[in-house]
Structure formats: C-alpha cells, structure tokens
Design a protein that fits this description.
Chain lengths: 446, 418
Amino acid sequence: MGAYNTISFDANKCDGCGDCMTACATAKTGTDDKARSRIQIVGSADDGFELALCRQCGDPKCVTVCPAGALTKDYASGVIDWNGDKCVDCLLCTVGCAYAGIALDEGSGHVAKCDTCDGAPACVPACPHDALTYVTTSRIYNEVGDWEDLFAPGLAGCQGCNTELLMRHTLRRVGPETVLATPPGCVPGMGSVGFNGTTGTKIPVFHPLLTNTAAMLAGIKRQYKRVGREVNALAIAGDGGASDVGFQSLSGAAERNEQILFMVVDNEGYMNTGMQRSSCTPYGAWTSTTPIGVGSGGLPSQGKTQDAKNLPLIMVNHRCEYVATASTAYMEDLYDKLDKAIQASKRGFAYLHVYSPCTTGWRFPTDQNMEVARKAVETNFVMLWEYNRTDGLRFTRPVDDPLPVTEYLRAMGRFRHLSPDQISHIQAKVVENLAFVKQMAQRQSA
Amino acid sequence: MEQTKYLVVGSSHAALEAVTAIRMHDPEGSLTLLTRDPHLPYSPTVLPYVVSGRSAPDGIFLRDEKFFARLGVQFKRGTALKALHPTRNAAELADGSEIAYEKILLATGASPAIPPIPGLDQVAYHVLRTLDDATKLNAAIRSSKQAVVLGAGLVGMHAAENLVKAGAKVTIVEMAKQLTDGYFDAIAAGLIEKAFTDNGATILTGSRVVKLAPSAVGATLTLENGTTLEADLLLVATGVRPNMDYLTDGQVEHDRGILVSDSMQTSVANVWSAGDCAQAKGFFTADKVMNAILPDATEQGRIAGMAMAGDPGLKQYPGGVPLNTYHFFGRHAISVGSSKVPEGGEMVTRFDEASGRYLKAIFSADNRLTGIYGVNEFFDGGVMCQLILRRVDLSAVRERLLANPLAVGRELMSKLWR
Ligand SMILES: Cc1cc2nc3c(=O)[nH]c(=O)nc-3n(C[C@H](O)[C@H](O)[C@H](O)COP(=O)(O)OP(=O)(O)OC[C@H]3O[C@@H](n4cnc5c(N)ncnc54)[C@H](O)[C@@H]3O)c2cc1C
Ligand code: SF4
C-alpha cells in the first residue's frame, strides 16, 4: 500500500463560479446539471466557499456499511470504486459517510461519487482560478518507502531533530554503493559512526577530522577509481566543519573538482559540542559563546555581532559541477537537488547546503522543526536555489511575497532578546541577501 | 483442544468489522472466525434483492477465502456456537468440539421472531434472514398468486414490494396502526402506504392474525375481526430476536440482548458482544437499547475489535443513533435520529402533497438537531448524523437548514469537521 494522489482545494482562490461542477456533470452524466456533479462547491461569497467531495478515505465507512459489496477500496490507486452491477440503491453508504462524499444522483436514481476520472479529474483543469489541483506529493513516499534504509534503527538524535530524516533519505537515495565521511558533529554524534566496533550504517563510514574531510574523501574516491570500482563518495558535515575549520580542504577539493558529493547540514553553529557559534551563525543569535547579558570580560552582550558567512555562494564561486541550497520543509525540492547532485558528483564536485533547524540549540518546541524550516523560506531568510555552470544560478522556490522576518525570528528562543535595531538589521540583511542572489541569478543567466 | 487468541462468532457486519479492527492492531495473534452459516460472509440487508432476483446469490459476498488467508484468519463456517463456558474461557460448538479462547466476541446477530399464533406451526411459512431463506423465497415468489406478509417493518415491506412486482396479489397484515412503525412517522407511512396500494397491494394495519390453518392453496389466516385470508405464500416478518441461546451458563448478563459497556464488553471477563445481539447504550437515553441496524453493527463491531486487541485509539461508544434508509417503488425515505420530541424541544414539518416531498426535523430546547426524516427529500444522512452526535448548536442556521437540508448540511460539514 502506498500513498495516493488527491484533489486538493484552495478555498482562498475559489469564487464559487461552479465551472468544476459543470465539468464533472458533463464528464460523468453528459449533462450540465450542477446538482449531478460529484464535486460540490458549497457556501457563499460572504462566508467563503467549501467543498463536499469524496475524500477516498483510507478506512472508508461507506465500504463497511454497504451490504452489497458494491463499494471497494482500490489499494493500488487509493480510489473507492462503486460497482453499479452490485449496488442495490439502499443508500446506506450516504448515511455512513460523514462528508457527503457519496450521495444520491437523482438523475440516475443511484448513488454517485468521485472516482478521480481514473487519475485525470475533469474538474481540476476546468477551474479558472487554480483553486483545484491534483496533488501528487506522495511521489517520494511511494518511491523511497521500499528502498533500503542504510542507517541503523534508533539513532540518538535530539527529539524533534530533522537530521535523522535527512540522513536516512539521503542514504536511501545514494544507495549502498557509497562511502560516507562524517566529520565531528551531530551526524556522528547521533551514532552514524557506530558503537563498540560496529558502524551505525550499512555502508562503509569513516570519521575524519573536522579539518580534512574533503581531502580524505577525495583520496578514498581516487583510490576506488584506481582499482576500477564505481562508488559514490559522500560527506555529510556540519556547517562548522565546512565553513570554519574544514574550509580549506573543502575549498581545495572543489577547486580540484574532485568527484565527491559534499552535503552540509547547516544548523548554524557547533550544536553537538554545546551550541558554540560558527561562521554560519546568523547575526543576533544566542549561542553559548555569544551569550545574552554579560559577555566575555564582563562586557554587555546581545548575541552574535557578525553576519553569517554565505557558504553556498562561496561554493558557487568555485564554479563547481553543482551547488544548491535546500530545506527539509521542501522535500520535493530537496530530492530533485539530491538527484542532480548525485549525478554531478560522478563528473566533479557537487555541493548541497541543507538548512536544518536545531530544536535544542535554537530553542523551539520539538514538534516545530518543519514549521521553523518553512518560515525561514517564507521570509526569505533562507533562499532555495541551484547552480550549475551551464545554466547559472536559478531560484527553485522563489518567494514573491515574503513574510516579515519577525515571523521567523519569533518562532524560536535564540532570537527572543533582539532589540528593534537588531531586528531591522536582520530584515535589512534579508533584503540585501535577496538582492545579491537575484543579481547573481540574472548575471549567470545572461 | 483447539486454541485461539481471538474467537469471533458470527460472520456478518459486526464480526467482519471486529476482524478488521483486531488485525489493524494485532497482525499476528491467532484469530478464528466461526459462523453457523454455510456460506461466505454476506449481509442480511442485501437479501431482499436476492429475493427479487436483482442480486445474484453468488455476487453478494463481502469477503472471500483469500481475504481470510491474507489476514491469517481461520474461517470456520457451518458450525454453530452451542454453549459458552466463560469460567474456563471455552466455546462449545454444535459438533461437540471445543475451542479455548483468550478473548471472544459474540456477534451472532438476530433471527426472525416467530409470534405465538395458534396454528402457525401447522402451516408452511417463509422468513427472511439468511441466504438460504432468500433463495427459497426467490423460488416461491415466482409461482405465488396470493401472498400474505405478516409484519410491516422494513423486512416485510421489502419482501412485499418484490411480491407485488413479481405479480402476486399481496396483503400486508400489521398489528400497529401504521406501516413501518418505529422507523417512520404517520405522514411518511402514509406516503409509503399509498405507493403500495397504488401498485395493487392491500394493507391491513391495526389487524392481528389470531389463527392459522392449512388449506388447499397453503394456509388460511383468520384475523381478529373474523375475516379470513388465503395465502399460497406466507412470510413472517414480525420482528427479530437476538441469537443468544448459547448463554447457558447464567454468567453473561442479558436482558433483551446481551448487555454491554461502552467498549462492548459484557459482564464477564474476556467476552465482548456487538451488533444485533447486543444491547448497548442509546444516544438519546442512558438506558440500554436494541438498535438492530447495520451501521450500528459495524460501529459496535469496530469498537469491540479495538477493545479486544487493546488498541489505544479506541473511542468509547457514543450511544446508538437510529438510522434508516428505505427505498420503495423508486422513492427514498431516510430517517436519522429519534422521533421523540425532547422536553422543551420542537418538531417542524414541511410537506408538499403534490410532489410527495416530506421533511420533518426535531430540535431540542437548545437548538440541537435530534432527528430528521425525509421522504423524496434528499439530504446527506451521514452529515445529519454528525450534527446530532456532535450536538451542534444550530440556532443561527435552523431556518436555512429546514429550507435546504442538503446544501446547508454540507456547508456546516465543510466548516465543522471536514
Ligand atoms: C431483510 C433484511 C433487510 C434489512 N435491511 C436493513 C436496512 O435497510 N438497513 C439497516 O440498517 N439494517 C437492515 N437490516 C438489519 C441488518 O441486516 C442487521 O442490523 C445487521 O446485519 C446486523 O449485523 P450483525 O453482524 O449484528 O448480525 P447478523 O447480520 O444477524 O449476523 C449474525 C451472524 O452470526 C451467525 N450466527 C448466529 N448464531 C450463531 C451461532 N450460534 N454460532 C455461530 N454463528 C452464529 C450468523 O450465521 C451470522 O453470520 C435488514 C435485515 C434484514 C433481514
Ligand atoms: S447504495 Fe449501493 S453502494 Fe451505497 S450502500 Fe447501498 S448498495 Fe452499497
């Protein structure tokens, strides 16, 4: 059993025109009688429009109350099928369904329900306002669910951390023919390097120094090439290990265009060792080395006083095979980039920078990780883009109408102390960064 | 002795739902489904359509052997539970063997209740509850010229319609003052009655058969007022009684049915009951009631299965809400909820004689819906049922809801729980 496609409705875009109902009635009954449509727009302009439509429930009540076996859930497509030959018109299904998803069609005298038109619903393209979409977001789940998980069960991450998600997904995607480097940081801290002589992964993994990850991995990749074996060389490193102490080996490997994939999990600090600041920590953020109140030497302190280094842009300036930024709040986008990065790493240096909110170090509730990651993108605090030498830099998820950065800042404790001045500094920085990346995008595509 | 973790007795709606619920939580525990019926699982509700010939007898099965094999369920058919021995967790079967269980579900449903009319045991008559009953009746209606149906509940009415359509002269005899008493009110019953008489049936409400005797065509029935009726086909559909003869041990508390808690547990350990044989809390009353309808059987079966498997997602039974849909001569009648007007409440009706559209809604003093009935007036029964169960305050929309229960019900649904 997989996950399924569904028809989704955006109430904000609907103006109640009813074109979807006409399209459905035409497709299903050959008439334009909206009452016979299986998708029903209800409500009013004052109150907002809503939808009555079969939800193709996973555990459908209509199926259980049908005495005739006329309704069945197709576990391949997810659609609940109605069999007119078996139906006895008892209407019990209409009493079972709490969502008005199956109802009497007075025109035919039988019940009728949405069957998604075999995967090409007539209502969706008929909507002139794009209020209806046929969502296929389950692609990742369906594809990846069956692949082998190459990490041990039960990694010891903090509650609510998204790095485990990232690690498991990434390794599933690169597959078993991989050598993994995980320098000191949260990734080995969670157990990828293992305990008591066994690794935490089902592929070879090693634990280089913070400073030499890219160099060691490049050497290993070359050795495999020499013996004629095709392997993926993958590093999963923290931002500290990449932007500070590990930077010279990273820059060197990129300059030599080594055939490796270097993934940075950017939680904006040395979180594994006690939340010290890194050069990726943003301005104003609290860390254990950029405290609030009394700082070093008794001087007053209000969090980090420098802006973050933009490591992915620096990598673009190495003219790598591929450079991209990603976020676990946008898995489709991340997956796309992961695929491209894997391909690029077979030709040369590929760099993937994943913004990864840290529940413990950033101080937000453990169930809010995705929300924080999403807010970062929705405010343009983080921008999602990709670069290759031919096409240049392009936004993959441009945010035209960004939320004010305060929406992001107030989602977590590390910014709680910010003064209005500090907030305006950050907002100005967001605007400046966006303008800068936009310029690059234009320049590159020109 | 055979042993099983879960023993589910019965193979109809309550039992099948329980099996699904158990398997959702416990994919491995040994599970045996035991039924006295010789066939694959089917619903009694579909049988009128087997009688009419619309449904093929081999096309009505709700599950097949493959389903049980896939779920690791041992399906034993054609063997009845004869006696339950709850003190030693054992079920004694009709063939004398025993099964030891850890947990048992009694989902044995109901059988036709046969009224104690003198002479009934001397004549041949039909009932309708099992597939074998239905195939026999299907064969009999083809040759019937003058049929009598005792009882104008939904079972009797369905059969009577089939007999009318098959060309027989049909008389329906009902003790109560109206047809479909307890399901629909007098106006709705009037509409139903008219449809039947328009199609040639004779309806004798407020009548009682006092005597039966064999006759040349079949049976002679004598009514209370002295008139007699000849029947070449007699169908007894005067109600049902729960199947619980196997409660010989005197341990499991029962009244009109097997008494159960809000998680369908009986008074003894390791024994649950659900469906037509169970007597559970009503939604409108704290008393335990019989609510022998299909949707309730599935709901109770689901709860029992979850409780037996220890599923933490279990939600307690909210109490039975009467729900009925009835399809007669191309028309539809739906009833949801109680017909009783609660204290301080109000009943509102709307009837258009020309179109035969009838709507009745009952509200409590604080503007909650407690019942809604319609003939030829279509609304989403499931949505109305949620309005009742959720006790939604309808003060602001009452008039609109009455004017257009279909659209306004959907609007409320989409705002409140979609
Ligand atoms: C003709 C007809 C029409 C109906 N129409 C409707 C309708 O329109 N709407 C509605 O809501 N309801 C209707 N009903 C009622 C509905 O069918 C029942 O409420 C529902 O089937 C109850 O399900 P259940 O699982 O509790 O029991 P049942 O369906 O009665 O099943 C009981 C099961 O237990 C088995 N069994 C019984 N005794 C034993 C024993 N001692 N040992 C082993 N197995 C045993 C039987 O073989 C059967 O498999 C109708 C019923 C009939 C007969
Ligand atoms: S109306 Fe048809 S599909 Fe619905 S419950 Fe009755 S038999 Fe099943």
